[in-house]
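Checklist before submission:
- one chain only
- standard amino acids only
- sequence pasted in full

Submission:
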Amino acid sequence: MTPQKQSNRMLIKLSGEALSDGENKYSEAVLSDVAKKIKALLEQDKEICLVVGGGNLFRGAELSGNLDIKRPTADYIGMIATVQNALVVRDYFHGQGVDARVLSAISMNQVCEPYVPGRAIRHMQKGRVVIFAGGLGNPFFTTDSASAQRALEMNCSLLVMAKNGVDGVYDKDPRTNPDAKKIDQINGSDVLEQNLKVVDGSAISVARDNGLPIHIISMDHLEHIGDVSVGTVVNPE
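Returned file contents:
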């Protein structure tokens, strides 16, 4: 029997690149804004888990594309970058009065807890934010894919993809096409068929196949999570 999704539980994927202000790897303004908005969600009795990307520190594709480094090695280094970001976010949250825990798919017992699904759920039930780090613990999977997988394992009712500089899905690349039109709602199957690459295709596929809606919004719009008039909702059809 498939576990019932928890209506008050959601997973938010935060862009690692958005944590940076261009000059520094971490932006005080961004971290403060995210902490404030997450705290507001917790005060609405939401249960929150996060996946943080590592793009502000390291991208595996850049290393494996320029040096004679195997793709799995580069991907593992990228996973370690997500652990670093998760630890920064956790400690910053603590300073803002938000209790948080980091659970990593890669064992790092001296700095964070191992990923155990039941433990993660218990943390959320106690009002703590759970930050998943280390991706899925395997190479060749993006943090988008990890977000969809963890959201399903946590029985979340919604997966939120908070993007850096992207406020939804467009019919064409808005950076190169001024006439691009934003799509308010779309089915997962149509995203894949039209090859709209705002979210990793494997994440769209697993969410679609398991009835998980995805809300794609800008990092600046976290307070509008669940508002279908903001961003794009990818329906699992």
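Reviewer check: Residues 33 and 220 are 8 Å apart (CA to CA).
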